[in-house]
Design brief:
The complex is a heterodimer. By secondary structure, chain A is mainly β. Chain A contains no helices and 11 strands. Chain B is mainly beta. The termini of chain B are far apart. The chains are: A mainly beta, B mainly beta.
Chain lengths: 114, 113
């Protein structure tokens, strides 16, 4: 019944080694978001896709990229992870940006960088 | 810029105790305000919302009133249960049509039998 699915639940990578996190949805929502949540901090929006249109937040580091090959899937690529990138990464969807308070979140991927 | 400040956690209560989690915000204009809940091992989910001053959002016994004069949106519940143990996030959306949600840091609630 899970509607927003993130895999894996836990991901360990090495310093500087590229890593990809995945998110899929069965809701057919137009908008998909990626949030970064560091320990004891608020979730922070990195970017979102509205259909195929990519919208990057101004303060998202270039190290973070995203791909959305189709409606159902969205990927977060971290090109060269640093120790400071260790965090929970949350994927979310909404039908449109206009009703984005009704976000559907996945359970997140906890990324560790060694 | 916009910001949301929540009371520091963790908060530990006995079952049937009264709960208040404070939330204040800074924003221009007329933001919409939300409370999200994150149960262990799950994603965030919308708990309640209020879109204009003096609105009261309510769900599952939780309530919060949009107070523009004090820029607050405190979450309350009269009698908590063990199943309410979770992390609670206050959030705001600056204006209708904006995709950007600003979250607080979250407050962890533990309810003990």
């Amino acid at each position: 019944d899970a509607m927003v699915i993130q895999n894996p639940r836990y991901q360990v990578t090495q310093f500087g080694k590229p890593v990809t996190l995945s998110c899929s949805q069965t809701l057919n929502h137009n908008v998909m978001y990626w949030y970064q949540q560091k320990s004891s901090q608020a979730p922070k929006l990195l970017f979102h896709y509205y259909d195929k249109d990519f919208n990057n937040e101004a303060d998202t580091p270039d190290n973070f990229q995203s791909r959305r090959p189709n409606t159902s899937f969205c990927f977060l690529d971290i090109r060269s992870p640093g120790l400071g990138d260790a965090a929970m990464y949350l994927c979310a969807t909404s039908r449109s940006p206009l009703d984005n308070e009704k976000l559907f979140f996945g359970s997140g991927t906890q990324l560790s960088v060694l | 810029g916009n910001s949301v400040t929540q009371m520091e956690g963790p908060v530990t209560l006995s079952e049937e105790a009264f709960l208040t989690i404070n939330c204040t915000y800074t924003a221009t204009g007329y933001p919409s305000l939300f409370w999200y809940v994150q149960y262990p091992g799950e994603g965030l989910q919308l708990l309640l919302k209020a879109t204009k001053a003096d609105d009261k959002g309510s769900n599952k016994g939780f309530e919060a009133t949009y107070r523009k004069e004090t820029t607050s949106f405190h979450l309350e519940k009269g009698s908590v249960q063990v199943s309410d143990s979770a992390v609670y996030f206050c959030a705001l959306r600056k204006e209708a049509g904006s995709y950007q949600l600003t979250f607080g840091k979250g407050t962890k609630l533990s309810v003990i039998p």
